[in-house]
Amino acid sequence: MAYKNYQNVTILDHPLITHKITKLRDKTTKTSEFKMLVKEISVLEGYEALRHVDTAMVEIETPIEKTVQPVVKRKSLCFVPILRAGLGMADGMLELVPGCTCGHIGLYRNEETHQPVEYYCKLPADISEKDVYLIDPMLATGGSAIDAVKMLKKHGARRITFICIIAAPEGVEAFCKAYPEIPLYIGALDRCLNENAYICPGLGDCGDRTFGTTNGTTEDRPII
Ligand code: PRP
Ligand code: URA
Question: What is the value of pTM for the model shown?
């Protein structure tokens, strides 16, 4: 599904994705299941977002005969999760393309200003040659994604796609204003941001829920 007249936006409103996002939103979903769901949703979203990847023809032999068939040009791809929460999505993307090159960008939101603060950046030297898939489950104000793209571009990335799981309209608008040329894949478009710049209804703090750093009911109780 498209969004307004933004040509770059695709909302992946497949019932399986929607179903899994509903479970992700549920505050009783525990860390282990939450992680699993993020991975499964990323596989489903990635399947669609990687639809246009480059392929190359290779010769193989079936039990019947020799044949020339297409394979994905894995070396032309690069996944870049935004730490921390993007790591959960990277697991899913790597199920699709095992061994794919990964870069990492570390950003966290200042709790008062909601502005992103950069703390880490490690990207492949040949990033300008690659199709870069930036991944982060949450697009709230858009500040983190916009800064991450800025960092990617500074390091030479030329072809970038952004994949998220839940987005707020405010973040989509900001992202599309900044980068109308960058394809943006969204699992669910929510209603709005609240006064703390959290997405409503959203799922809460994705990094905390992925890594069990909340004090609420969502933590798995350790056996030992
Ligand atoms: C979350 C999320 C995004 C960012 C989105 O990360 O994973 O990176 O917020 O918000 P924005 O669109 O308003 O910038 P967070 O800052 O909580 O860091 P964490 O993953 O390390 O917890
Ligand atoms: N980051 C999150 O983890 N959740 C939100 O709702 C907004 C930003």
Answer: 0.95
